[in-house]
Write a structure and sequence with these properties.
mainly alpha, globular, 9 helices, Tetracycline Repressor, domain 2
């Protein structure tokens, strides 16, 4: 669903979005009412409807804000003068950075994915965020066509592995400093660099 909102968001609309983002992340889609969003935003319910058609449109707008940021990042890294493998490394780091930058949205998506009654919300998230995933699959397919990545592994599985590794790191990063073996990995950039190396080159020694 396309949110009914201005191309350039007003301060009032942005405030509603930020409030909705926090409440959706804390209470889930089903557990968050427009009345609660209006009250915490300090606006009337009618004011919400001025910017957003309904709760579903507001939910999609929250996801859409984070999706647009990631889409802009993908536009930047898709530089024809940069090797595709370097673009993949940059995407992995920027995706991880974006998870932390948009913590509420990240928690919201994870929460809904684990909710047995949240399939409708997962579907909405897929509709909003799916294009970015498809673009990364396309980047990996390009690297495969250049013989830089093995072609016998589906590009979508490689992309999913990258996303899954970053999501898991987001979930457990606060525990990493409790394990001396992981010294340095508590820094997202260090983790991303090592993870990209594993993803692109594997862990086996060369058989040359």
């Amino acid at each position: 669903m396309t949110p009914k909102m201005d191309n350039e968001l007003t301060d009032g609309a942005l405030k509603i979005l930020k409030t909705a983002e926090a409440l959706f992340a804390e209470q889930g889609y089903a557990g968050t009412s427009l009345n609660a969003i209006a009250k915490q935003s300090g606006v009337s319910k009618a004011n919400i409807f001025h910017h957003f058609e309904n709760k579903e449109a507001l939910y999609c707008a929250v996801l859409g804000q984070a999706s647009k940021e990631m889409s802009d990042v993908i536009d930047e890294i898709r530089n024809p003068n940069s090797p595709t493998e370097e673009q993949i490394r940059q995407y992995s780091l920027q995706h991880l950075t974006n998870l932390f930058k948009n913590r509420n949205v990240t928690r919201l998506i994870l929460r809904e994915m684990q909710d047995d009654n949240g399939q409708q919300n997962v579907d909405m998230a897929r509709d909003v965020l799916g294009d970015n995933f498809s673009r990364i699959v396309n980047l990996i397919e390009t690297a495969q066509s250049e013989n830089k990545i093995r072609k016998n592994i589906p590009a979508a599985v490689i992309a999913m592995t990258m996303v899954a590794g970053n999501v898991f790191y987001f979930q457990v990063h606060k525990l990493l400093d409790q394990f001396p073996e992981l010294s340095g990995a508590e820094q997202p950039q260090n983790y991303s660099s090592a993870f990209s190396e594993i993803l692109l080159n594997g862990i086996l020694n060369s058989k040359d």
